[in-house]
């Protein structure tokens, strides 16, 4: 990457040239990639931009409220409550790639609705270089790359950070003056908790994954992982009190990485793992057991689907 300040100036110029006098919407998720793209675009074209945050029901705990507070300086910010629509779309869908495409189409539908309302011709996205590589290499589809429907009702898509790796995006975030809660935030997948749920996505599974991920993020903060989260794998038998239960199996994953292209599972203290499993099973009566994923990337991906 060129020097950070030079990149920022060039990115803003590119955005202004691409959008011209037209209006644009940007997919703002609250992750560092989309936050940087949104800030660059907002500083480049101002009121021509409408940032759109879509609450799919697959977000991290407290994320929607956090977005409202962090980006309240963007007066045109729109928060779309779309949980019911996304769960309806995902009903009965179990194939990982189909999930990503369904979610990608759902996002585009929401953006197109807002775009028509504000007469926007362009969609801005926070796609970064590893997203493109993984989609082009058929490792997995990203909802903002390979997950797009064949026909998108925009004149163009603008991706100002498309050639950057994650650590470079963080450098830009710091240079833009974004809060540490954004610039240092762990990666979060575009399809959200859906790719941390093996099989069909339901509101119950999403709630389990959200609460368990919150526990993992809290407990592993001192380890400074590249990414740490919990995934819902399926069901298994367990014992709670004097009763036999058939509850969810939650996998804990914590990895170290530079750019997400490769990753190593972190070595965690046994006492830390025991504390995590105790909290997850204790705080959710529907969880029967917790396991720790020791697989590196490759052969595994970081996320589960």
Automatic annotation (TrEMBL):
It catalyses: XMP + L-glutamine + ATP + H2O = GMP + L-glutamate + AMP + diphosphate + 2 H(+). Its EC number is 6.3.5.2. GO terms for molecular function: ATP binding; GMP synthase activity. ATP binds at residues 29-35. Pathway: Purine metabolism; GMP biosynthesis; GMP from XMP (L-Gln route): step 1/1. SUPFAM superfamilies: Adenine nucleotide alpha hydrolases-like (SSF52402), GMP synthetase C-terminal dimerisation domain (SSF54810). Residues 2-185 form the GMPS ATP-PPase domain. InterPro entries: GMP_synth_C, GMP_synthase_B, GMPS_ATP_PPase_dom, NAD/GMP_synthase, Rossmann-like_a/b/a_fold. It holds the Pfam family NAD_synthase. NCBIfam families: guaA_Cterm. Heterodimer composed of a glutamine amidotransferase subunit (A) and a GMP-binding subunit (B). Catalyzes the synthesis of GMP from XMP. This is GMP synthase [glutamine-hydrolyzing] subunit B. It comes from Halorubrum xinjiangense.
